[in-house]
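User: Sequence in, structure out. Go.
Assistant: Echoing your sequence, followed by the structure tokens.
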Amino acid sequence: MMSLLGRPDVDAGEVFVNFNQNITSLAVATSGGYSLYSLGSVDSTLDKIYHTKSDELFLIERLFESSLVAIVSQRAPRKLKVCHFKKQSEICNYSYANTILAVKLNRERLIVCLEESLYIHNIQDMKVVHTIRDTPCNPQGLCALSSSSEHCYLAYPGSVTAGEVQIFDAINLHAKTMIPAHDTPLAALAFSPSGTEIATASERGTVIRVFSSQDGSRLFELRRGLKRCVSIVSLSFSTCAEYLVSSSNTETVHIFRLDRSATETAEGHGGKQSSDDWMGYSFFRFLSKTVTSYLPTQVTDVFSQGRAFASVTLPEAGVRRMCAITTIQKQLRLLIASQDGYLYVYSIPTVEGAECQLIKRHDLRLEDHYAMDIKVDSPQTLGLNSGVSIGGAAGVPPAGAGAATGGATGGGSGGSDGKAAAPLSSGGGGDKPGGSYASAVKGDEPAGPSSASSA
């Protein structure tokens, strides 16, 4: 759901960090391999679910709490591997014409983002169901996929000169709406858990906006700061959708509270209010409109923008950080995972304007967490064809794939012309590989230290 792109951390030898879609686990990749952590008891301990030695990874995405992970290595940045980590098995791999810049997952779709195209796979069988070609140049791989199956929307930049957001229905495979979100190009995108709202930030970084992903109407406008323009690295809705958190290249992390009560009051609950309340609300609106009508547009915008509900000041600026807000053991927590190898856990105050309190700092480089260190010597193929080439790139089947899982070559141009993988019943060995893959997608096999040891 959230990853560090632009990758100056790779050259600096830093770690790659990424939360899954519902903020229940954290993926951490270093030069020596990757690990998956459970966040269920992060206030005190960080439990390692899985660890394996591998090539240095460029991207890693886990599908919710399932055993399915999608990885891209630095050695082969054009190849996507989909793996069942509990079975230590490679399900399939796809090669693309250019470097993979982002991978997004939900229970219906897998999205691969290249610089000027997007590939939409059906995650149940990994077939390419649609290709969005000739997108505006997107060197950072900026895109977002809703985690919701009901509102399965894909968002990506619609322009290289302005902050236009294109919303695409990834199930029905058609463009839904275009949102003129900002005057300058986009820097960050994030869907709410339900997929009905999308948060945006531009390269200027001073204003964050929230829109309806269904009709493009503006719902919130939030001001991160007035003094300086910054580069926003991540945006994330809380799992309860009541908060929005942003991090940037500065040392400050901002939390905004999305107060929908005022909107609901104005739109539909006026009849339930007392006459005094309604008179007061009406007078306030009249006064606001009267005063701001005499002021420049830039000034009135500042008056109408929401301010940060709470914030965190970290020791150092210039460190890329991913942030998330979730409920852990019935308590709301802010999680900050940084490329320098730390996971910070903060409590969120109940009073507006207060600083968040640090509860725990975990060192992601240490190997003394509860772990099962598994080295995969000879990964098996599970269920789907391997070595599939998309968009003209040469497929590179894994060793031992042989004729049983022989690669197919992707087609040329067109809307959705990528060659699809074989059906679940073909290729690979083992017991009912199709069923194992389906279980991995559905998350029927809980992943934990005990299950990892039995893999």
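User: And one key feature?
Assistant: The mean pLDDT is 78.
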